[in-house]
Amino acid sequence: LTEEETCCLTCGAIGVHKGLTHETDIVEIEVKGHIRRVIRPQYHKTCNCPKTPSIISAPAPDRLIKNNNLGVSVWTYLLLSKFNFHIPLTRVLSHLALYNIALPIGTVTDGFRRIQPLFDPILESLKNTSLQDHHWHADETRWSVFVSIEGKTGHRWYLWAYRSESCIYFQLEPSRGTEVPLEFFPIDIIGILSVDRYSAYKCLIKTIKGLILAFCWAHVRRDFLDAFKRWPKLEQWTVAWILEIRELYRLDALRRKIEIESENWVEADTQIRKHIDVMKEKMDDELAMESLHPESKKVLTSLSNHWEGLTVFLDHPHVPLDNNRAEQTVRDPSIGRNNYHGSGSCWSAKLASYLFSIFATLRLHKINPDEWLNSYLKACAAAGGKPPEDISPFTPWVIRHQDKISIESSA
Over the stretch 126-143, which tens digit does the pLDDT of each residue have? Predict the structure, then answer.
């Protein structure tokens, strides 16, 4: 304050500062692009030794891409913006132009093409680790890849997602057939696969005998709701079944809260098994009715056909009643599909599936994707634009308990 502002309004006495302050924190953001100039003095030799270079200088700074002067921080920003926040690349570059950073889109896309192989070992590690688990959620969603493939009509591809406790792995393929999960799962795999009722998964277990399909009660509930929408007069019948499913979810949630094999757990397990028996008896009785509405018969026939997979959770309490985790997993890339419509080439499609897998797995382990990507790309730059020989410090299951990535030193 000025001296006048510190004066008493009554007598004019000047206020005295005795060291006390009021402190206020204001959050601000300052984005600034800059050029980091590395100056390396040159030393001319003063001898005639043939093996000594005529000019000696310090090593050149690490580059992620040969003959490219964009630093790791720029590539980190670009990759995160498109594949983590799903912002179209043209919009990202327009944003950077506001800060006097003009990047040609051709330079960026060519850089993406060169960067894509750097993630090969990370994806291989994700897949191998996922296959060591024993329970997966799987789902698929459409994804456009604007390339022409012999024998394929149109540009619709499919983004398959496999979510386990350790990893989320995306597989982008032109097909929606059984051959896709057959490529992911080894023939001798043993475990439980939570899925919807898509036929490709049913064909999968004919080849892979060690897989058990756990079907989704959320889809069953949706069947009853759809039946009511088509036939409002089935409201009473629909509501009765939805209440049965709601009670099933309540009993399952109750059992999950209790320590397995404890006395209370046995009681909760008995209750949910009794409820399942009541539901099956109700289903069988209604299917035997000659007066059953055709729409009701259709819904209950599907329920009966999938009953074995719908009751896997009884003997495997860790398996949830639905496949919502997989549907939530594919929801995030769907934002990118809606924002920039897909991929323009096979390599960009592969890069998308790679980074979707990496960023989703990092979120699964609560790891900051910005710090991880910046650290990994710095290690690649230090290795001469190649993946580091040892990628284990960058795998999420190694750093899952760290609050902040601190692996730059090991790179």
Answer: 999 999 999 999 999 999
